[in-house]
Amino acid sequence: MYRHRNRDGSDIALPVGKVVCVGRNYLDHIQELRNAVPETPVLFMKPATALAPLEEPIHLPAGQGRCHHEVELAVLIGQTLKQVDTATARGAVAGYGVALDLTLRDVQDGLKAKGLPWERAKAFDGSCPLSRFIAPTQLADPQHTPLALAVNGTIRQQGDTAQMMTGIVDLIAHISQSFTLSPGDVVLTGTPAGVGELQGGDDLLLSLGDWTIATRVADKLS
Ligand code: ZN
Questions:
Q1: Which of 43, 101, 119, 160 lies most in the core, judged by the most C-beta atoms within 10 Å?
Q2: How remote is the CA of residue 13 from the centroid of ligand 1, in Å?
């Protein structure tokens, strides 16, 4: 069962809420999927039931085609944010973590082709493995921090949060114009290039700055 925790394993006294995500926020990832550059951030959500502890084996859905990894900087929200400015957004960050935005790419491609919503591809149970959190002060410059994912010892994704087209606090403020963010909600900030398929038994190493987190994909599909 997922709950918000500090890096040392202690509980964070915030409820587990929704996850608001941005698609197409790193130009190199937009280009690899041949998507158009959006004029405004592309937003979607995952429910609280999508969250799973990143440190535990990751369960991929069976029989639904390719499941892609997208490594992302995750932001834990500590205050209610409704139609706020960037200064208020900055003050509401309770922590930073690393998430995988798991994506059933074949399902998503099929939905996109039909002009249908993406939830079946993005919001399924366990679709958001999420790390523990570090305090905002523990990241020297959240908007200029390397972010990477290695699979079985090979670097797949290697970016820097400086590559975001809409930066962290601008994104939070923008989201809050449409969706009130509540304490314990999480914002995912998009993925750099290099997304690819995960397989049962893969060993993963995620990194944010000098913080590295090892995990693996469960052998058996669920
Ligand atoms: Zn994503």
A1: 101
A2: 26
